[in-house]
Prior knowledge:
The protein is of the alpha+beta class.
Amino acid sequence: MIKDINDYKEAVAKLKKWADAYYIDDNPIVTDEEYDKLYHEAKAYESKHPEDIDYSSPTQRVGAPLKDGFKKAKHPSRMWSMEDVFETSELREWLDRVNKLEPVNRYYIEPKFDGASLNLIYDGGKLIQAITRGNGVEGEDVTNNAKAINSIKLEIDYKGFIEIRGEILLRYKEFERINKERLEAGEQLFANPRNAAAGSLRQLDPAVVASRNLLFMPWGVGVNSLDFKYLSDMMDFVYKLGFKEPPIRKICHTIEEIESVYKELIELRPKLEIMLDGMVVKVDSLAKQEILGYTQKAPRWQVAYKFPAIEKQTKLLNVILQVGRTGVITPVAKLEPVNIEGVVVERATLNNFDFIEKLDVRIGDVVTLIRSGDVIPKIIRVLPEFRDGDERAIERPTHCPVCHSEVLDEGALIKCQNISCPSRVVNNIIHFASKGCMNIDGLGNKIVELLYEKGLLKSVEDIYHLDREKLLELEGFKEKKVDNLLSAIEDSKKRDCWRFIKGLGIEHIGEVAAKKICAKFKDKFLDATKEELLEIDGIGEEMAESYIEFMQVNREKVERLLEYIELIMPKEIKKESPFTGKTIVLTGSMSKPREEIKSMLESLGAKVTGSVSKKTDFVIYGKDAGSKLKKANELGVATLTEEELDSVL
């Protein structure tokens, strides 16, 4: 029994030691009952003495669920991609390139785990933030979830600011346990441990994250003030902080030594409890890393040496048609179960129907599966020598398997165009309400998914039928939030014609095409013919067919939407504008919304693009303008400040 703060501190120390033994060392030293008993005693003491709570106590790992999703967060330093090599010859070429730039004779080798990358930020010895990789510059703040992962330290014995980077992984046994539970609950199965790890990291409830026993394996360090000569020494320091160490870490000096470790890892791979798809070769000297620097996408001082693909043979039992969130119909192979890398595979991608016809794959065929760097196994060849004449051809669908509407068939792409199809309706609503379309503030991904789940949104049209009283009945929907949402919906009842057409989500019809269609047809856009569309510069056969097919399937739904929405037609272009026919790029922070300035320039006959080239006529810039302004100056492109733009106008 914990009687005072000294007992409590002793209990927390024991719990941390026991948790490390279980989650990091895979070597439990007490029974689950002993751990749970002490855990609940510590919890009971904390509830009576909140002023004594230890930040690093295992009891502090699971926080409250998030209600509004994850916020974006910038990495203190960029998380880079990696160049891949697959053969000895490619590895040799990489080594030669490195040594031409800077002589190197010492390389640090470690496994390349197949999971979800995460950046942990510590300051003053405490975990202050955890950010997913995202685009490398910014990701999602998943700090609450990171704290629920037992192999992530809440507190470390280092007081400086440091980024510790690594991979979130899921052991095979946990993957199978989770999928078994999802199967029993009637939920969609995870394709593989990597997919499950990434999905787990983005759960809104940290308690769910905690239940999945995720594993964090460090592989690098970002911003830090450590004083080490070699990366291997820096990683030694990280592992001594208590993080889990990989099964193999070695220093190599020659390509022969690197190849030897590569073969060792390939042999070890089937025995491991976690997925790895190669190994990483890094220049060990931190000084030489600085000299070698970076390309636009990846460090020059490291490379991923990927493992050869694993091939297995099995039988194709059937083909299931899946309708994705954008309406694309994907053929999925149902297979005789086969074990690949510790995972029993029963399904594989067939890419598309052009691929099926090219491969001449039939139901009943014996096929070869491959899994390389790809997450989902795929069929790469048919073994016709095993055919017995009972095989059946795989037919191209003419109607959606979910809503039975006619599909758009473009060869490789077959798509359901019905905006009310249950398989794509949530995505349609999200797209329609997005900032670049109807700009309905408050109808983001999570809110749309919730309203769909509660039966309040079953189609795009339902946006304009949302009931205030029913919204107020939902958890987290206070009066102000509901009124703001309804106000944003009311505002959307008067929008630019192009925003409405873009918001419909017609395949191949983006902002530029939507603006051209509105400019030509005005309020008669529903009656446009294929021949008339093809007269528009930039609209080709595929775009025209997609537009016509969409309007045939959805005309009544679009007409009903127009009963609520007043469309603003494009203004006539002022021919006397100095920007007529000019290509313009906007960059930096402006005093007005960028979209407003873009629309104004387009109304004056300008073409606004996103990148600077020799064909750019003007770059208009605001505060904190960066690389685009620099490139404009290098190319001799004319530049204008926002104030100078106003002056010209």
